[in-house]
Amino acid sequence: MSSTLPLTSLVNFLADDQLNKAQLLALIELAINIKKHPNDYSQALAGKSVAMIFEKPSLRTHVSFDMGINKLGGHALYLGQQNGKLGERERVSDYAKNLSCFADLIVARVFSHDSIQGLAEHASIPVINALCDVYHPCQALADFVTLSETYADLSQVKLAYVGDGNNVSNSLMLMAATLGVDFTLICPAGHEAQQDIIEKTKLLAQESGSKLTLTNDINAIGKQDVIYTDTWISMGDEDSSKKAEILAKFAPYQVNHALMAKAQASMVLHCQPAHLEEEITTELFDSELSKVFQQAENRMWAQNAVLVTLLAN
């Protein structure tokens, strides 16, 4: 996407690499402004209805969108698992076209990025990706809102993600590279980010002048300002026969006070839900270094910034 494209040109919010630095900074600034002055935006979505598709269970995403839309004066309709997986009961294209008859915007938390793309292709209203198997852009935007509340200049921040290469780390490193944030991705061998996302991130980092470090060696973490982690066991795989094997393989990658001290990091982030004593210790999660609940709250404000922007166009 061209770096000259204005924020008002946004049609959907699907993937982190579809926004440029200026657009991301504008969304972050808007999110912080809505958080500081919520009454100024209490009617921003007056008369607007948002259809929320949830193929997967959710706490923070469901609550933050539902209550966030309400705070903006809009109406949210939850469409849960009772409708089945997108594309099975009826075509994704039919689903999108039907919702476009009633709603002003679609929020979708789905299993497959193909479903997000199908919704965006066939809907005549904006679509927000609330999570898929490749991206979690709402989470990453909230994360950088959280970082912006502590660090005045994001380009000076050094951020490391430790753990499983997944949709959260994909979005985080794409957004970091776009914003000019030095990013280190540390994953066990065989659990790295997918290659196409890595290649996209490298190109974005070259453009912004940021540094991207990829390693399997937890001892190569270097100096960091912030360490981020996520669950090692994906949602739905908690009872997997491979769980014990995964936990043993990931054990050296636990984020704890010792790792924070080694990296001289002053903040730890986690998108939650956390499996305490696995990817992060309870002591660290509950410590003053942890900004996980500020991060969770900022999901609502970041998403509200996206909603206001898309429905103002």
Task: Please specify the SSE layout and strand pairing.
Layout: H1 21-36, E1 49-54, H2 60-71, E2 75-79, H3 92-102, E3 105-109, H4 113-122, E4 127-131, H5 137-148, E5 158-162, H6 167-179, E6 182-186, H7 195-208, E7 212-215, E8 226-229, H8 243-250, H9 257-263, E9 267-270, H10 282-285, H11 292-312
Parallel strand pairs: 1-2, 1-3, 3-4, 5-6, 5-8, 6-7, 8-9
By secondary-structure content and strand pairing, the structural class works out as alpha/beta
Share of residues in helices: 40-55%
The averaged pLDDT comes out at: 94
Instruction: Count the DSSP helices.
Output: 11
Question: What are the segments in which pLDDT stays under 50 over at least 5 consecutive residues?
Answer: 1-5
**Rg, nearest Å:** 19 Å
**Beta-strand residue fraction:** 5-15%
**CATH level 1 class label of the largest domain:** Alpha Beta
CATH level 3 topology of the largest domain: Rossmann fold
Along the chain, the helix and strand elements come as HEHEHEHEHEHEHEEHHEHH
CATH superfamily of the largest domain, by name, is Aspartate/ornithine carbamoyltransferase
Q: Which strand order does the major sheet show?
A: 7-6-5-8-9
Domain count:
2
Distance linking N and C termini? 18 Å
Largest sheet report: 5 strands, parallel
Q: Which CATH architecture of the largest domain? A: 3-Layer(aba) Sandwich
> What overall form do the CA principal axes indicate?
globular
